[in-house]
# Entry
Amino acid sequence: MDMLTTGVLCFAAGVVVGAGLLFWLLPARRQAGQLIRDRDEARQALNHYRDKVDDHFLQTADLVNDMTQAYRSVHEHLSKGVQVLCSEVGRKRAVAKSLDSAPDKDNSEPLAPPLDYAPSAKGTLSEDFGLQQKPTGPFAPVGVADNPLPDIMVEPPRDYADGDTEGDEATSDKKPG
# Structure
């Protein structure tokens, strides 16, 4: 029994060790680990790219602000130069060409609110849309007020499914047969 027990124990130990090695060395497990590492690297690269994009746009905003400030400084410098260096006629010409000057309200026409349609439009947004116009052409439109009532009035057909028996007096006088 010694030999049999030893053989069984060796067999069981071999099965356990073989199963462990098979589980550990499976290619799917290695591939899953590689996929996890690749995913983590891709996330890290994406986060790095997003940080670079954020930095780029923040720097662009700073540069645009600096450029705007420089433009203001140049404009103020030119305005001061006009005040100090130019004659009265030159100042008036400079003010007339200045982008900051508002149009003269005394000489300009009164401003009308903008139209939401073209003045020549005949569509639903024109001012005369839907107004009654006199008919043109050989035929006049038929209207209720223009025509007198006809001599013979035709009533619409009755629906006998409604159970309406008020109009049955004419048929009740008739006898079957």
Observations:
- The two ends are 120 Å apart (CA to CA).
